[in-house]
């Protein structure tokens, strides 16, 4: 049994290093602003826990296209990837929260309900439960985004200071004279 655990741990370590740690270090070394990284990380996780599986990458792509320079695209995508296991664990809480908000019926998560879903007998209930899960996420998303931003900002400030390769440039005095060279072409 321990050899299986060692093998699993051994295989997991390089995978985590290659898929999460190395990309994060590359992001930090390129000198992005901590506020932008914190917002992008919070946005990637918030969109990454969207309760419909397989849609989060498209949502992140649309957010990157709409927000442009306000977010850091690699950070959004990396944190979306990291949030995938959390997404699966939050589908039921979003469903229950949406049912509570809407005052809707409680969708039973039993093997019989699953059988009805597979045979097509519970189509209305399934659509209603998807709506409730989406409602739960829509209401919770601003709170998730804000909380994650507040938590990630100090973390990224420390990480950028520690891993950034760009030296901090001293502030230039306002009265300094800059030299401007013009090149004149002969016509």
Automatic annotation (TrEMBL):
Keyword Transmembrane: yes
Domain DUF2062: 19-162
Highest rank taxon of the organism: Eukaryota
InterPro entries with a match to the protein in the record: DUF2062
Residues annotated as transmembrane: 37-70, 130-152
One Pfam family linked to the record: DUF2062
Keyword field contains Transmembrane: yes
Key words of the record: Membrane, Transmembrane, Transmembrane helix
Protein name according to UniProt: DUF2062 domain-containing protein
Lineage, uppermost ranks: Eukaryota, Viridiplantae, Streptophyta, Embryophyta, Tracheophyta
């Amino acid at each position: 049994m321990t050899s299986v655990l060692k093998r699993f741990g051994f295989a997991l370590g390089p995978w985590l290093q290659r898929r999460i740690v190395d990309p994060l270090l590359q992001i930090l070394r390129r000198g992005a602003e901590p506020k932008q990284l914190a917002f992008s990380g919070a946005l990637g996780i918030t969109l990454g826990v969207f309760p419909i599986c397989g849609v989060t990458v498209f949502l992140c792509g649309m957010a990157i296209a709409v927000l442009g320079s306000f977010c850091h695209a690699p950070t959004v995508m990396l944190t979306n990837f990291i949030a995938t296991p959390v997404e699966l664990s939050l589908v039921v809480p979003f469903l229950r929260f949406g049912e509570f908000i809407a005052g809707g019926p409680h969708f039973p998560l039993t093997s019989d309900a699953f059988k009805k879903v597979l045979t097509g007998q519970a189509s209305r209930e399934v659509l209603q439960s998807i709506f409730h899960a989406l409602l739960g996420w829509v209401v919770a998303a601003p709170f998730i985004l804000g909380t994650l931003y507040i938590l990630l900002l100090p973390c990224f400030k420390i990480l950028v200071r520690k891993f950034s390769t760009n030296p901090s440039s001293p502030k230039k005095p306002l009265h300094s004279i800059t030299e401007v060279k013009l090149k004149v072409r002969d016509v």
